[in-house]
Write a structure and sequence with these properties.
FHA domain-containing protein, SMAD_FHA_dom_sf, 23 strands, 2 domains, FHA_dom, 6-stranded antiparallel β-sheet
Length: about 400
């Protein structure tokens, strides 16, 4: 059973991040792990985070949904967690996958406000409504995870409904996210040069790119490292990014961030570090057709005074997304998202194209890649569960 639980924790690890472009909701980990009524188990259990993430994925009709977790430092030594769970949380902290704070305070709401994320919490936030009016004015921005027949479900704090709703980034958030920041503390996992500096720094799996930095905390109007409380230095403009998504069989399987510095290879099993692997979601025919590395995406700045390529107007300074077919069998472009066969444009091997607004790249029928905000999701099946390997004796769901 210990091996099975470790596999689940590894799966959950792939669903926590502090990347502003990828996180879909924010939560307080110390709160979520103590939702004892979700399974009737021990007082604190890290697997409850996986249950809440699964519920979020179901409601968003999207696979591989990451959450932004705020962690009270006391959790790293909480005796109600197993030694393995404490080790895992410490590793997440050292990898910069979660924010570990001495005094979390209202950081969860601050992150949600800056990034426009929904909040998953049972807390009332009565004293913070003046600073964050959207907690009571926007239905779906704050939802409480509660027990349901097949696992956790969400209940909105105001306005009814159970589907998390994203807001817009605040003006302050946009300004903060337009810059790179550096923490004076050596090895800072959030605002340093890379993989962290704690007890598990030698095991760090994440090399933090400037584009993936979390939002600074504001203290007296000054950008501050939320972990160390130190004033952050301005390290220049943040790299331009574009968030792309992979849709297979009508379901968004994962999102990924494209930057000007690093092209991204998408295929059955790309050998490139950071490549997007699709093999686990493909049927046999799709696996035979789609190459190991099938298409390459690049982000290019639009030249000054140039609208963009004639077939791809620029989008608010976000740059141009260029796709190049590097496969054996070729791909296709669905212009404007059209699924009409007569509209499909063939993309031959070694051919490149600038993506216009709404365009989708089709690697194989039913396997598409496009801009995340232009690629709708929705499928008649349940997204992959991070709890698939959880032993039944570890998770006792309440009876309906």
């Amino acid at each position: 059973m210990r091996f099975e639980i470790s596999k689940v924790l590894d799966a959950i690890e792939g669903r926590v991040c502090t990347d502003p472009s990828l996180a879909r909701a924010v939560l307080d980990l110390a709160e979520v792990i103590r939702y004892q009524d979700l399974d009737g188990g021990r007082p604190a259990n890290l697997l409850r985070l996986g249950m809440v993430i699964d519920a979020l994925a179901r409601d968003l009709e999207e696979d591989s949904v990451p959450v932004y977790a705020i962690v009270h430092r006391a959790l790293l030594s909480d005796a109600d967690l197993t030694s393995n769970e404490r080790m895992v949380v410490r590793r997440w902290a050292d990898d910069g996958l979660v924010e570990v704070l001495d005094h979390p305070g209202d950081r969860m709401l601050e992150v949600a406000d800056l990034l426009g994320l929904p909040v998953l919490s049972r807390a009332r936030f009565d004293g913070l409504r003046g600073r964050f009016p959207w907690t009571v004015e926007q239905p779906g921005r704050v939802l409480a995870p509660v027990p349901g027949a097949g696992g956790p479900v969400f209940i909105a704090h105001v306005g009814g409904g159970n589907v998390p709703v994203a807001g817009t980034r605040s003006a302050t958030g946009e300004k903060l996210l337009a810059r790179q920041w550096r923490c004076p503390e050596p090895g800072c996992a959030l605002f340093g040069g890379g993989g962290g500096g704690g007890a598990f720094a030698d095991l760090a799996r994440v090399e933090r790119a400037p584009a993936g930095q979390p939002p600074p905390s504001l203290r007296g109007g000054v950008p501050t490292c939320p972990r160390h409380g130190a004033r952050l230095g301005d390290a220049g403009p943040r790299p331009r990014t574009e968030v792309l998504a992979v849709r297979i069989g009508g379901l968004i399987r994962r999102r990924f961030v494209l930057t000007e510095e690093q092209p991204v290879l998408v295929g059955r099993a790309p050998e490139q570090q950071g490549g997007i692997v699709l093999g686990q979601w493909l049927n046999d025919e799709a696996r035979r057709w789609i190459s190991r590395g099938h298409v390459r995406f690049e982000l290019r700045a639009t030249a000054p005074g140039r609208g963009a390529a004639s077939d791809a107007p620029s989008r608010s300074g976000r740059g141009e997304v260029i796709v190049t077919d590097v496969s054996t069998n070729g791909s296709g472009i669905r212009p404007g998202g059209s699924m009409t066969e007569a509209d499909r444009i063939a993309l031959k091997p070694q051919q490149s194209r600038v993506l216009s607004a709404g365009d989708m790249v089709e690697l194989y029928p039913g396997v598409q890649v496009g801009r995340a905000d232009e690629l709708p999701s929705g499928a008649p099946f349940t997204p992959t569960s991070v709890m698939a390997e959880a032993p039944t004796m570890a998770m006792r769901l309440p009876r309906p």
